[in-house]
Amino acid sequence: MKELYVKHIAALLSVKDWQVENCAQMFEDGDTIPFISRYRKERTGGMDDASVAEVKHWVDVFAEMDKRKTTILETIASQGKLTDALRDEIENCVQAAHLEDLYLPYRPKRRTRATVAREAGLEPLADKSYEVRISDPESEAAKFLSDRVDSVESALSGARDIIAERLSETASVRDTLRGIFRTRRVVSKAAKSAQDNPEAAKYRSYFSFSMPLERIPSHNLLAMLRAQNEGFLSVSIDADPERCAKKMYYDFCQEHRYPGPALAAQIQEAVSDAYKRLLEPSISNEILKEAKQKADIESIRVFGENLRQLLLASPVGQKRTLAIDPGFRNGCKLAVLDERGDLLYHTIIFPHPPQNEKVKSLMAVSDILEKYKVEAVAIGNGTASRETEDFMKKVQLPEGCRVWTVSEDGASIYSASEVARAEFPNEDVTVRGAVSIGRRLMDPLSELVKIDPKSLGIGQYQHDVDQALLKEKLDNTVEYCVNSVGVNVNTASPWLLRYVAGIGPVLAENIVSYRKSAGAFRSREELKKVPRLGEKAFRQCAGFLRIPDAANPLDNSAVHPEAYHIVDRMAKALGVRTAELVGNADLCSRIEASDFVEEAFGLPTIHDILKELAKPGRDPREEASAFEFAQDVRSIEDLTPGMELPGIVTNITNFGAFVDIGLHENGLIHASKMGVRGMADPSKVLKLHQQVKVEVLSVDLDRNRISLRLVR
Fold it and tell me: Does 326 share its domain with 420?
C-alpha cells in the first residue's frame, strides 16, 4: 500500500504507521478481521476487531481511489492537458472531494453557457479579463464582434460565462466555500405539500427549524432529509450569498491583482453569477451530503452496537424447550425442541378468547411438559403475550423449569424465508415462527444470524443511511459476535458457520455435508478433509471452531493449532501432560509467560493462551436472568404519571431508548431523562435487553405514546 495512504490512515485512526502497514499486508495475504485481531496481536499492536475493521474500510476506500485516479489521469492525458505538476497533485491526493475538484475542469460535461461562448471565440477575451490584462473591457470586447457575437454586451456576457465556469471549477474556490458552508446553519421549511397532510404531521417540529450544521444530532438531520425526499420539507444551508461572493472576489484579487473599475464590475458580476448559478447549489448539496455521511456513520454505529448486544444476549443453553407463539383468535402455536433445537412436536391450543378452551389447553400443556421433560418455556412477546404468561402460571411446571419472554422481532421474516423453508420444508410458517422463538431463548446468536439485521427492530433510520456502509458494519458485527463466542462445528447450522472467519457460504455447506456423510468431526485437523477447505481457510477458521470431546482438548478451546506446540512446551516444563494443563487454572498460574515467547509468538499471544487454558472455551456471554412485568398494568389506559415500572430496553437510538413495559406500545426514555444532568448518550447509559426500572412521565392516548424517565 502507498506510503501516503498508510500515513493518512494512521493519522485518521490515531495509530502507528507500522500498524496500518501490517494490517494492509495481512489483508492482501487474505487474512480476515477476526483472525488478525485475535491471533496477530504482535503485528497489530493489540488492535481490537473494531480498529482492524476501520483500517480495512480505509484500505478498501483507497484501493477504489487508486482506480479512480487511473481513470482521471487517462482522461486528462487523452485531452493532452496532463502536466507533471497536475499528475503529482492527483497522485498525492488523499481526499476524494479534492480529487474531484482537480478533475472538474477536465471532466466531460454537457453543453453549457461557457461552451457556447468558447464556440463563439470569446475565450481569449475571458483569458485577458481573468488574468487582469485589460483595463477597458468594452473596447477589448469590440474586437470580438462577429456573425456569432452581435454586440459588445454579448461578448462581455460570454466572457463572464467562461470566467464563472472557471471559478466554479477552481479547487481553491470550492474548498474555501466548503469551509464557510460548514460553519453555517442547516434550515428546513415546510413545503406546500405538507400543509394539512396527515403523513407530514410527524415532521411538524421541522416545519420551521434551524441549527448549526456542526451541532445538529444525526437523527434530526436524517429525519429532515427523509422528509425532504418525501416532499414535505425543503432543506438548505443558510450561507450568506453576499459574504461568499465578496470572499471569492477578494481571493481572486489576491491571486491576480485588483482590476480597474470597469473590469472590476465585470469580474464581480462573473463572481456573483458563478456563486448563485453554479457554486451555491453544488457546494450546498455537497456539504449536506457530507453531513449526512457523518449522520449515517453515527446511526450505523448505534445500529451496530445494538446488534452486537442483541447477538451476544444471554443464552439459556441446551435445554428441552417448549416454545409458544401466542395469539388470540388463531390460538397459541406450541413447538417442543430438544437440547439441540430440533423440532420434536408441535400443536395449537386456544386458551384465550374467543374460544376460551382453558381446561383443554391446560391439560395439553401439562401432558407436553411431562412427556418431553421440558426444562424451559419461551413465550413470544407479541399479541397475547401477557395473557399467555398468566395462563402458564396456572400450569404446574417441572422442577427447575422457568418461563421466559422472548422478542419476536423478525420471527415472521424468518418463518417465510428460504432459510426456514430449507430447515422445515414440511411445516407451515406458524410452526417455523414458534421454533424460532424457542431457539432464540436457547442460543440467540445461532438463531438470529439467519435473519437480516434490518428486520430485528433495532435500527435508527436504517433505510435512509448508506446501505453499503450499513452492510459492511452489520456484517463485521455479526462476524465479530460469532467468532468471539466460537462455534461447535458438529452442531452449527450452515447459516452460523458461514460467519466463521475464512469460511463463507460455500465452505459452510461443505462442512455440513461432510458432517452428514462422515459423522461428527473428531479433530480440527479433520477439517482439512472438507472439500475446498485448504490451508489458508484452515488457518483463518480453526481457532474459532470448537470440537467437544476431541482427543486433543485444545481442539475445544480458542488456542490456535499453530500454537499447540507452545502449550506442549508449557506442559513439559511443568512435568504434566497437555490434557492435565487444559482447564487447570492453578497450573497455568505457575507459568512464566516470558519463558515461552518465540519469534512469531510474543507476550500478547502467550498471555491469551494462558488465559484460554485456565478457562478453555469460556462463553463470553452473561447468564440469562428471568424478568416479570408489573402485574397491574395491562393496557396504556392503566398508566398514570408517577408510576414506577419494570421494563426491558428494546431499542437504543441517539435521541433515547425504547422500553417494553409489558404493553403493545413501547415507552420512550428521552436522552434528557436518563437520570443524568442534561442530555446523555443513550448507548453509554443503557444496553439492549437491559432490565430497568422507569417512571411514567406522561401518556398520550391519542397517539399511543408513553414518555418515561430512567430510575435505575
Answer: yes
* Residue 275 per-residue DSSP state: I
Identify the CATH number of the domain in which residue 382 sits: 3.30.420.140
Q: Which pLDDT tens digit goes with each residue over 69-99?
A: 999 999 999 999 999 999 999 999 999 999 9
Residue 677 lies in a domain: yes
The reported pLDDT for the residue numbered 676 is 63
Whole-number pLDDT of residue 615: 92
Q: Per the domain annotation, does 392 fall within a domain?
A: yes
User: Percentage of residues in the chain with pLDDT exceeding 70?
Assistant: 100
- Looking at the fold, whether 610 and 640 belong to one and the same domain comes out as no
The strand pairing partners of 337, in sequence order, are: 321, 343
What is the count of structural domains for the chain? 4
Contacts of residue 536, defined as CB under 8 A and 6 or more positions apart, other chains included, come to 30, 502
Q: Residue 673: what are its φ and ψ, rounded to 5°?
A: -115, 35
Q: Give the pLDDT confidence score for residue 677 in this predicted structure.
A: 64
pLDDT number for residue 360:
97
ω into 212 cis (within 30 of 0): no
Closest CA to 265 of 188, 372, 157, 411: 157
Residues 547 and 669 in one domain: no
CA–CA separation, 699 and 423 (whole Å) = 44
Cell of 541: 477458521
Residues 606 and 685 grouped into a single domain: no
Residue 68 phi/psi, 5-degree rounding, is: -65, -40
Phi first, then psi, for residue 303 (nearest 5°) are -60, -45
493 and 415 fall within a common domain: no
In whole angstroms, give the CA distance from residue 521 to residue 544. 14
Q: Which residue has the cell 422478542?
A: 407
**Is residue 550 helix, strand or coil?**
coil
Please identify, among 94, 118, 139, the residue that sits at the C-terminal boundary of a domain.
94
pLDDT band at 665, cuts 50/70/90? confident
The residues that bridge with 694 in the sheet, in sequence order, are: 645, 710
- Give the residue numbers spanning the domain of 367: 321-442
- Among 175-184, 425-434, 646-655, which is the least confidently predicted range? 646-655
CA atoms within 13 A on the CB side of 10: 19
Please check whether residues 427 and 341 belong to one and the same domain: yes
Burial class (CB in 10 A: 0-12, 13-18, 19+), 148: middle
**644 and 606 in one domain?**
no
Q: Among 323-337, 498-512, 535-549, 605-619, where is mean pLDDT lowest?
A: 605-619
Domain's final residue, options 442, 474, 504: 442
Q: What pLDDT is recorded for position 182?
A: 97
Question: Span 251-271, mean pLDDT?
Answer: 95
pLDDT greater than 80 at residue 626: no
**Residue 562, H or E segment:** none
CATH of the domain at 68: 1.10.10.650
Q: Which band of pLDDT confidence, cut at 50, 70 and 90, is reported for residue 465?
A: very high
